Structure formats: structure tokens, C-alpha cells
Amino acid sequence: MSHEKFKTCIDGNAYLKKRFGDVSWVFEPRKLEAWSATTDKFYGPGFVLTGNVTEFLDPIFSSGVMFATVSSHLASKLVIRKLGGEVVDWDNDYTNFIRQGVDTFRTFVMAWYDGTLEKIFFSDKPLPLIKKQICSVLAGYVWDQKNPFVRAHEKAVKGLAKLIHVQSQYGK
Fold it and tell me: Are residues 12 and 61 in the same domain?
């Protein structure tokens, strides 16, 4: 983002203009995109990563507390088993489980930024069941395989958006 574009943004808001309008620039404004960050390894000898360390999705969404709670709870149960002498399949029992939740939530984060969720949220004829299913995902139930917006998250979100678009085109 250029200095001029950023200045225009600040000048367009009375509060920001009053607070920052006359400050001197320390560096050229930068546009940050793709807030998602991940790691290749969720566990190793003597450690297991939990919470946003496994994958940071986006600062706008409040998924961090949910991922921290669920991943820490699961990791602690697996650590207890491991310390008790059991063999733990960390890939299957931990990494794959956490990634499935992260992938589900990522679908909704990306749909937010590409405008798909807005179209779904503000459709003319929202269906109560679909609204409930999507709200469930956004509330953190990203492992509920009974929910089609979890089980087939990408397909379900894209399909619903396409259906809404078609309905709006043909007035149905």
C-alpha cells in the first residue's frame, strides 16, 4: 500500500485524521496479506504444539481460544497415555485431528475474505437449518462430522454460494 493510499484511508475517518493526520511517517505503509501460518511438525521428542502455534489462521476470527482449548486437552490426554507407557500415534490421534479442524475453519476464513460468506449471510431466503449449521462451525464446532459444513466444508460453502447466486438470478 502506498503512502498516498494509506493517507487517504486515514483522512477518510475523522477520528483517525485527528489522531494520525499530522504524524510523520517512520516507514512506507505495508499491506499484509495471508495471515495464515503453519508448521510442518506438530509434535516431536519431548514436545507437542498446541493452540495457534499449530496454525495461526487470522487475527479477525476468535478461533484461537477454541483451538488452544481443544488441542491442549487432546495433547494432555495423549501425553498422559505416552507417559503411562502406551504407544501413541501422534499423526493419526493428534495432527490429523487438529488439521481437520483447522482446514474446516480455514474454509470459512477464506470465504469471509473472498465475499462468499457475506453472500450467504445476507441471502434473501436463509434456511434456519443451514444458518444453524454455519453458526455451529463459526462457534468452534469444527470437528462435528454430522454437520455437512464440517464434513465437506469446501464443497458445502461453495455449493451453497452457487445455489444462492442461481436463486438470485432467477428469482426463486
Answer: no
